[in-house]
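Hey, quick one: can you model this chain's 3D structure?
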Amino acid sequence: MRLLFCGSGWLPMIDRIRARLPTGATIEGWDRTQPLVGVLSGIDVLLPSNAPIDAEVIAAARQLRLIQQPAAGVEGIDRDAAVARGIPICNAPGANHISVAECALYLLLALARQVPVAQRAFADRKVGVPLGIELAGKTLGVIGRGRAGSTMIERAKALGMTVIVADRSSTRSERDQLYAASHAITLHCPLTPDTRGMLDAAAFAAMRPGVLIVNCARGAVIDRDALVAALDAGWVGGVGLDVHWDEPANPDDPLYADPRVIALPHVAGSTEESFARICDVVIDNLERLASGQPLRHRVA
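Sure thing. Here's the predicted structure for all 300 residues.
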């Protein structure tokens, strides 16, 4: 059994999976100097990561038996093309929810204490500035009630925050109420047609002045132009971005030079513990595939 890891990042995952592969199985990374469709001969299992798996890729992988996403999001996989060929798609939901929630909490704390500005103040030998805020007693709006969102709710309450929640079933009016009441907002929802661009100009206009926003979901949940306009207007107090509209993101983008913006390279789920849990799911499904047992976490 041959596996191909298609991601442009998260490469430590390959070694962790390789160390636990069933006898006779192998895993390799995609040499991105070559077209993906040209390196699929003999591949039984694709691990997409952040690489798009479209109909052309699925058609070219003639020996393909499984698409196993080593994460939760499967929006980059052409489900119809996979279903048409009878190729199952599985993911690893909840494997990184603790890591993602902790990263979101870190970004929220860093925004509250204006860490980029504080680092510059340290370099300038200033003391006691900038002036931060306490999160205790503030209201956090959490968008997304899945595992990561639910874990974030627990951590925020432990800090003494009041938490209000919206999810994909919430109406625009309900989300507007969340925006108006929240001192800070964290995003933990999947990217769907309904959530793409959810934080648009109207959403920002409904928010409290000085709101802090953390996105550990998907970059496109936020309308980038609307975010820039809200920052330029001074309406948004700070933004923590672990996910971006293009990845890898361009570090020379002026957005990331704004001292109110903290950017991370999509590392919220990158911890030893979450990778171990992901490997548990991947290896279990490889063994099930080899023995003809039903696969776990099948989404198509």
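One thing worth noting: The chain has a mean pLDDT of 97.
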